Amino acid sequence: GAVVSQHPSWVICKSGTSVKIECRSLDFQATTMFWYRQFPKQSLMLMATSNEGSKATYEQGVEKDKFLINHASLTLSTLTVTSAHPEDSSFYICSASQGFGGYTFGSGTRLTVV
Amino acid sequence: QKEVEQDPGPLSVPEGAIVSLNCTYSNSAFQYFMWYRQYSRKGPELLMYTYSSGNKEDGRFTAQVDKSSKYISLFIRDSQPSDSATYLCAMITGQSGGSNYKLTFGKGTLLTVNP
Questions:
Q1: Which residues on B lie below 8 Å from A21 (Cβ)?
Q2: Distance between CA A52 and CA A83 in Å, rounded?
Q3: Which of A40, A21, A15, A18 shows the shortest CA–CA distance to A114?
Q4: Which of chain A's residues have a Cβ under 8 Å away from the Cβ of B107?
Q5: Would you call A43 and B110 a contact, using CB atoms and an 8 Å cutoff?
Q6: Separation CA A70–CA A35 (nearest Å)
Q7: Rg from Cα positions in chain A
Q8: Which long-range contacts (CB under 8 A, 24 or more apart) does B46-55 make?
Q9: Residue A37: closest CA among chain B residues belongs to which residue?
Q10: What is the pLDDT of residue B99?
Q11: What mean pLDDT is predicted for residues A12-39?
């Protein structure tokens, strides 16, 4: 079956630093990647959608300059949280799609900013 | 009103019980419906996927969709402790033929099945 690898699974960083999260589709080409954010006991909130080779489309209220998304190949997308602050602490999850109806989620990254 | 409403629970049942999980939605443009299971600190995994009104069965799981009432359900028969997780309903919007199909999730229901 389709597998999506997301790294790191958890990261602690100091306030003001940047953190990069990688999402790789291991056995399929992901034409579209989605990035979500999930707070404790809350649902997944879509942050942005990216197609390979194109600029990401951000959801309303998501700062594109803070959450940099790169989807340079059909198997890799990255989310960089720039100048992280404690309020950015959350669970970040990617999802890769190779077409309509096929969504495979990564295992998530727990970010803690201290 | 949120597009997708789901009671967050928590829901606690004894082993072997039948579990009923539900979501309502307001956007009639939603055409495709999914149920995901999410264990603590893990990504969601797809359980069921359906696009038509009616029932779809897969083992102990049955997904039910009523588009006229904008109501979907997931039933779990003979529930097991290993079913303890958060269950999220999700629905697809987007334009036909496009590549950006965005999932809209419910809040998730935390289920605990007690041995």
A1: none
A2: 25
A3: A15
A4: 42-43
A5: no
A6: 11
A7: 13
A8: B46/A103, B47/B74, B47/B87, B48/B74, B49/A101
A9: B43
A10: 47
A11: 94
Q: Among candidates A41, A31, A101, A36, which has minimal Cα distance to A71?
A: A31
CA distance A48 to B35: 21
Q: How far apart are CA A108 and CA A8, in angstroms?
A: 8
User: Is residue A20 packed enough to be buried (19+ CB in 10 Å), middle (13-18) or exposed (0-12)?
Assistant: middle
What is the rounded distance in angstroms from the CA atom of residue B74 to the CA atom of residue B89? 9
Do B103 and A41 count as a contact with CB atoms less than 8 A apart? no
Cβ-proximal residues to B60 (8 Å cutoff; 6+ apart), any chain:
B76, B77, B78, B79
pLDDT for position B53 = 87
Give the burial class of A61: count Cβ atoms within 10 A of its Cβ; 0-12 exposed, 13-18 middle, 19 or more buried. Answer: exposed
**Measured on CA atoms in the order B9, B13, B15, B19, is the torsion positive or negative?**
negative
What does each C-alpha distance from A94 to A21, A46, A76, B59, B78 come to in angstroms?
A: 9, 10, 11, 28, 32
Determine the straight-line distance between the first and last CA of chain A, rounded to whole angstroms. Answer: 37
The dihedral sign for the CA sequence B52, B103, A104, B17: negative
- Which tokens hold the place of A76? 């890799």
In this prediction, residue A69 carries a pLDDT of 94
Query: How far, CA to CA in Å, does B30 sit from each of A58, A82, A97, B56, B107?
Result: 21, 34, 18, 18, 17
Low-confidence ranges of chain B (pLDDT < 50): 99
